[in-house]
Amino acid sequence: MHVRTFRLPFKGFGLHAEACWAGYRERSDQRYVLFLHGGGAATSSEGTRYLREDLAEHGVASVALDFSGHGRSGGHMVDASLDRRCEEALRLVDSLQPVRPRAIVATSMAGHVACRLAETLRPEVLVLFCPAAYEADAESARFGEPFRTVIRATRSFEQSPAFEALRRFEGHVLCFYGTQDAIIPREVQRGYATACASARLADFRMFEGVGHKLHEWLAGQTALRREVVDRIKAALGAAVA
């Protein structure tokens, strides 16, 4: 397995990204899986390193981004928003043109971002770990108190832009939740399930007795890690069949 790190200029600071692949050398024309991490202050691309390494061993290349204010990227989280995270992900993808991601793997808050990006990037597969969803007003709200104010006032997620985008997605959706997730409302979990009506395949997997920190838990579960990799590989294979 090989790893290459690089930085991208963005609004006066640098975004950190990391490519991971197997084989003798990285190919410029290689289709890749885009990894987007969640929203907690301590989160970064490191949280999914185990999965990216597992996929690389099976011939699946990936590129992971640290959003601004996270990990090794510059900037401040309080200056960002959901809209800004979409911009940052597109900045990364544009730097890799003409290649587009074959799949987006997104966690928690990034589930919303991934659904919004799907209409522009048109991946074949969405892989969502404990994905969140937000109302339209939340997308431009700066993280911190403005964002918290919007989500505290949210009464319904039915018209979430994430669900609207997902209803138009015709690729494959893999969605993983823990049965004890106390962060993502049940209404949001049901919303993801019902929004996949147009998907070519929708596969939902619930991990019994697990909370919101799926990656932290899954990294230590050898058999289940293998299951997750197999599901992703199967979805990617079916998408190009």
From TrEMBL:
State the superkingdom: Bacteria
- Short name of one Pfam family: Hydrolase_4
InterPro entries linked to this entry:
AB_hydrolase_fold, AB_hydrolase_sf, Hydrolase_4
Give every Serine aminopeptidase S33 domain span: 31-136
Know the name of this protein? Answer: Serine aminopeptidase S33 domain-containing protein
What is the scientific name of the source organism? Pseudorhodoferax soli
Its ancestry begins with: Bacteria, Pseudomonadati, Pseudomonadota, Betaproteobacteria, Burkholderiales
